[in-house]
Amino acid sequence: MSKTGKPEIITFLLVLSLHLNAQISAPGKNGGIRTAYSSVQGTDSVFIFNRPDFEANSTVSLIATSADKTPGWNFIWSVFNPISCAWEIIPKADTGSISVIDSISVNSGYQVIMSKGLQNDTFTVWVVFNDFAVTITNKDDSAKVRFGDYNCASVSFFSDTTVYQLTYYDPNTCMPNTVKNSYTIRWTASDEESDVPPNRLIARLESPPYKDTWYKISITDNFKLVRSDSILCPAIASKAFMQASYIELSDSIEYPGKLYKYYYDDEKSAPGRFRFDLSGSENAVWYELKFGDGEIYEPVADTERIVHEYKFPGEYTAVLITKSPAPLGCIDSFRLENSVELEDTLFLLPNVFTPNADGHNDVLVLYEENSNNVFRSQDISVTSIEITIFNRIGRKVHEYAGNIRDWKGWDGNIMNSKLPAPEGVYFYCLTYYYFVTKEGENPRQSAVFKRKDMKGFIHLYREEKY
What is the pTM of this model? Predict the structure, then answer.
């Protein structure tokens, strides 16, 4: 030894560095841990490999890499025999910088001694194959849920697992050690709208599907091994769904030949018709539609065209009831809360009128939107009207009695003639009739027919023609 001792320290560090660079690697491993021997502190490696399919045969390899990755190394491999509790040499002699053990197909321990000159490195590793299975047990030969395991209220799923423990041995005591593993359960459904069972092996679905739906249970462990199984649940429940839309008075199909569109825009006036669409319903063979005004209708299919007229203003709650096919006949319902609504009475009469002729004889010009060529009221949920208009000497120039929606208004001519009434002030007497409903009550039961009288003046102006 030198006085300083430096050569010896440098040699020690070099050997230690070379040892640390030597290793056994496992291509394709899915996880790894350090050993936890009961006899001594473990520093060996445990390599975890996931089998591609349950109980499927698979092989893996181990690669021993020398410390300096140069030729001239000798490799001696041994495999652990848990019966004799001894390492047994494998008849394999490799020289060079690396050595490979392949075709490993069972759990086992491997030891390699790498030697070159005065250097000997020993490494021990364990190969453990990870495998488990999950099986849904209550399905028939066609993968459907057994009939007795579902009804209108719920569907039951029963699953079981087959789990292999992950073990390696303490080579000093031959006692097995178990690798800790944990499992996460997750259910999914092929139909995105379907509920899924709780994430348990034995699970109950509280909302049976209204479509044929596949349910899959998947279990994932700590080493990202996933096993799954699926079961088909036939359509059980019915799904009731509907939409209602107000039919505007400009609808020429529901109101052919009428001029309603010139006086009613988007106002929901009573009496009012609504179109009901049941096409969003699923797996139903029977329907009952309660309109909320006492009327009930049984459509034959969800494609049927349904139009219903509400007589009185107010809010209505329509209810659709459906039933799925036999033998279960599961019932479902859907409510349209306050989406069927007709506005309360409104009546306004203008006091200025400017029927300035523009040279066109088309009668529809008199009723163009945003035109002021016709003296007409703005009204909602008014049923009928009686109106008489007089000039300043008391002579009638216009009168009408009947359904307010059929009143075309006053075109500024005297008593439906082509003789224009002169500019000036006109006096009207008017009575309109309407229904009043009590707030919070069924309009059909609380509607009261009323009338109101009005009197007033109209100012008629005729501007110059340009």
Answer: 0.79
